[in-house]
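Box S1 | Example of a co-folding query
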Amino acid sequence: MTATAETLELYTRGNADIRDLTPAVSAAVKNSQLQNGIVTVFCPGSTAAVTTIEYEDGALADLRRLLDEMAPPDRDYAHNRRWGDGNGHSHVRAAVLGPSLTVPVVDGRLTLGTWQQIILVDLDTHPRQRKVIIQLLGEGASP
Ligand code: ZN
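Box S1 (continued) | Returned holo structure for zinc ion
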């Protein structure tokens, strides 16, 4: 059993900016030579989320609409009253979606569905520089 990790850095625009992380995660699996195990994709931070979706404009627009309906920016948030940073909706959206994803790796490949991509959703109210941790655990990974 071995473990390796790499950190991906990217700039996001905020306000439900959605990025496809699949190419980077696939590359990390390939580089690690992991054959069988799991890859965890985690974004440190309480206003971003990692999940999967079919990465096409319609589904991305539908997700953004759902986020607006679920946690509208203009609702009263206790977080905003306390801190005045105006991103109460960002925090609750991130909490609901979750900060990480685990994908099984079988025979050196991510076991994603054909129309299933790994995405980072930046829910903050302004552009951010984000780090995403990609950790690989299992058999066949180089040290
Ligand atoms: Zn805040």
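The longest helix spans residues 57-70. The mean pLDDT is 96.
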